[in-house]
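so im writing up the methods section and need the Flavodoxin family protein record in one place, dumping it here so i stop losing it
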Amino acid sequence: MADLTALALICTLTPSPEPSSSELMAQHILDELKGQNVDTSSVRVVDYNVKRGVLTDMGDGDQWPLIREQILAADILVLSTPIWMGHPCSVAQQVLERLDAELSETDDQGRPVMYGKVATVAVVGNEDGAHKTIADMMQGLNDVGFTLPAQGGTYWVGEAMHTIDFKDLAQVPDPVASTNAGLARNAAHLARFLRAHQYPAD
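--- predicted struct ---
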């Protein structure tokens, strides 16, 4: 049986059931994680009523608490976002803003609740900005307590100013497939290590 769990937060701007390159990239990573004996699931954030704000629950029908519950239950988080105008999309930024609330949430030993969890980032687009987007997302995730594995970011960007998306490809390019496999391998290894060797309490 799998000894770890992974959750992909898919930050596409496109509601279900329309195809999404961000979802496809996340699914490739989740498939690699399954090969590392990890149970996987995913959430397309835009399908939920996630309120703007920086609290764990903004009330008035806010569905972020449903997503947060899944994040807390997972060992590994995969954050998958498209690039828009050279930046992470607004949904990905909103996820980071909601995760900001975790800075004041602690476990029974006083550690931030995201300590011991591993985060990875996947980016797709047809313009420049993949490295900056990964850097922005990783910085925010690390700030709230997630641990980042070696080479924990992956991306595909098409030719600038063209209309080919990741979901339009006949197959995953070999360099992307290799990067995704390494990301999954390192994320699972780190998650198992942190489960056995949690960060010290104050």
